[in-house]
Amino acid sequence: MTTSDRHGRAVARAGANFALVKYWGKADERLNVPAVGSISITLDALFTETEVELAPKQRSDEIVLDGKRRDEDLAKITACVDLLRRKAGIDTRVRVASRNNFPTGAGLASSASGFAALVRAAEAAFGLTLSPRERSIVARQGSGSAARSIFGGFVEMHAGSAPDGSDSFAEPLLESTAWPLEVVIAVTAKGEKEVGSRSGMTRSASSSPYYAAWVAGQPPDLAAGRAAIRARDFAALADVAEHNCLKMHAAALAARPPLVYWNGATVECLHAVRRLRAGGVPVFFTIDAGPQLKAVCAPGARAEVERTLRAVPGVLELLASTLGRGAELR
Ligand code: 2P0
Fold first, then answer.
1. How many angstroms is it from 17 CA to the middle of ligand 1?
2. Residue 144 Cα: closest atom of ligand 1
3. pLDDT (tens digit, 9 = 90+) per residue, 50-70?
4. How far is the CA of 48 from the centre of ligand 1 (A)?
5. Ligand 1 site-directed mutation target among 22, 23, 262, most atoms within 8 Å of CB
6. Which residue CA neighbors atom 12 of ligand 1 most closely?
7. Tens digits of residue pLDDT in 283-329
8. pTM for this entry
9. CB 73 within 8 A of CB 115
10. Per-residue CA distances from 329 to 13, 46, 277 (Å)
């Protein structure tokens, strides 16, 4: 029996994640090693489910996302699956069918959950058993944030310093059940963003006068984020997360041409969250490379956060989630 007879097909699910101490910039573009570490939370309610099936008769991989062929994503997916083909010692092509239960490419971390689910499913389809760390290293080469979606709850990604990227992986910091924070996402625009994270990072690194300061400031933010999570200190986490988010956007805004990921509603939501917290509601915001605002709140505060954000003009829809588990086979 060949590997493909024994295995051949697998389905995996991975939750989206977003960073509270952010990844922005690369140390090595070829190996996709980030310039800075990051700390994230993995979500339960926003996920990608991916089926990988060996296709021995095909000469190239095939990717279908939300029912549509995505030939534009094929090169990145093939490169990532190649890493697993090499480990398995086989050269068989695959058919990948993937589904997001949330809008793709609008700053909601679809590449994070997408590559984490792809790696988990392809590993199983090829009959491999990787350690979680190896999975994270492979997922990173698909998309940096995907290294974090391998794990659930609170996760830290290490930038690492090895030239081969072998110490650039994520690992769990705290389980979701140990501090069950909740998330409300204010969707302020739908559709794919104008400038993807990857080119936004390159542009920031090459042209923003604040990029070096952004990189230099990351170790203390990581230490503060780690300490706040270990101590379950909401006020401390809110402080470092908002500061770190605004620094990332400051570096991006100062790029040439500028990277303005926000719209008016994003900014109104930011103010609404700050007003809520000033009034004693345990909530803070973060914003990624897109116009959606993510509000993170302590258990019990979600209903009030939802009421407030729903009333902000320009908010099209709210998504809510608890924290979730890492990438798993179905
Ligand atoms: C983050 N973002 O830490 C940051 C904040 C967006 C803003 O990780 O080039 O899609 O595939 O490694 O992972 C988005 O970057 O970039 C991201 P690649 P990725 O969540």
1. 10
2. 12
3. 999 999 999 999 999 999 998
4. 16
5. 23
6. 144
7. 999 999 999 999 999 999 999 999 999 999 999 999 999 999 999 99
8. 0.96
9. no
10. 6, 16, 39
